[in-house]
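User: I'm preparing a small set of examples for a lab meeting where we compare how different chains pack in three dimensions. I only have the primary sequence for this one, and I'd like the structure in token form so I can line it up with the others. Please keep the answer compact; I'll paste it straight into my notes.
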Amino acid sequence: MSTPVPDPKPLDRSETAFWQSLMRALVVVPRVLDEDLAEAERLSVNQYSILVFLSAAPDRRMRLGDLADTSSLTISGITRLVDRLAEDGLVERRRCEDDGRGFYAVLTRRGFERLERAYPTHLASARRHVMDHLAGFDLDALAAAFMHFGDERYEAFRRRVPSSG
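Assistant: Understood. Below is the structure token output for the 165-residue chain.
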């Protein structure tokens, strides 16, 4: 049985404007970043993100399940994406030594070089479409607030998702 939801307090004018703007940004920003990367670098924003996550991971590798969780993709979605990156020689799929059922995605040298080449395009796109519009805002405060969006659900989700690839 679900817990009843109390009647929510209506949003005021400022909250409504912020909420509508946030909803638009959540749709538009990934699209424009994806378009810029695809046009200039022949990479999708999802492919780029996977290369970034792997580059920051210990030994430049992550279990597919953890990579799916980190990227908010399904296991089947991350598997297809990693397979495409592997076909291009940007990552390798390796069986987990400690678990014969799981797989790692491992960033290759070629993948890291590809990430380095794409970085200036992504940075310019992020600046043009996002950062240049935030002049005068307290970015540290915004970042801190954004880090709390969906905390309860996100942490509950992370506890439910098994860490297998």
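A couple of notes for your slides: The chain is about 60% helix and 10% strand. Strands lie at 61-63, 91-95, 103-107.

User: Perfect, thanks.
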